[in-house]
Specification:
Helix content is about 25%, strand content about 25%. The longest helix has 15 residues, at about 105-120. The strands form two sheets. A six-stranded mixed sheet has the order 7-6-1-3-2-8, covered by helices on one side. A two-stranded antiparallel sheet has the order 4-5. It is an alpha+beta fold. It has a single domain (about 1-160), classed as 2-Layer Sandwich (Peptide Methionine Sulfoxide Reductase, Chain A). The mean pLDDT is about 95. It has five helices and eight strands.
Length: about 160
């Protein structure tokens, strides 16, 4: 099993999006790469410095990191700074946060391909994991519990996976 952390705007939709793919073992929403103190959602909304992030544990034999990143770029605007959809603020920044140095090769290959596609420098940070704090329980699987909840990801993207 491997783990990658992806920040891509509101974490509710990103979690639901990645939960659909075979090979994704577990997802958890939380706050990453801010100060070393565990924040509350309210702290994050008031510029604590953390990014809303989805922790993804996946089976590399069933889904590659490259494929996960291809999916990630499908549902974010990689040129937008601190904004995805109607959500604005530092907590909505985009970032690929890795846990192992060996992941950088795959990350850089996909990143460069995306830069070539857009013809511009991406606003997606690539950084090692500094910290991750699990979000409050009510945020976990939020869109499953609240199907009408807002998300910048169009609903049509929630039916791409082969299911679990």
């Amino acid at each position: 099993m491997s783990t990658i952390y992806l920040a891509g705007g509101c974490f509710w939709g990103l979690q639901k999006f990645f939960d659909q793919f075979e090979g994704v073992i577990n997802t958890e929403v939380g706050y990453a790469n801010g100060p070393e103190q565990a924040p509350s959602y309210e702290d994050v909304c008031h510029d604590s410095g953390h990014a809303e992030t989805v922790k993804i544990v996946y089976d590399e034999e069933k889904i590659s990191l490259e494929k996960l990143l291809d999916y990630y770029f499908m549902v974010i605007d990689p040129l937008s700074v601190n904004k995805q959809g109607h959500d604005e603020g530092i907590q909505y920044r985009t970032a690929i946060i890795y846990t192992e140095e060996c992941q950088r090769t795959a990350i850089m290959a996909v990143y460069k391909r995306e830069e070539e596609k857009t013809g511009a420098k991406l606003a997606v940070a690539i950084e090692p994991l500094q910290n991750f704090f699990s979000a409050e329980t009510y945020h976990q699987k939020y869109l499953e519990k609240n199907p009408g909840g807002y998300c910048h990801i169009p609903a049509k993207y929630y039916s791409l996976g082969s299911g679990k």
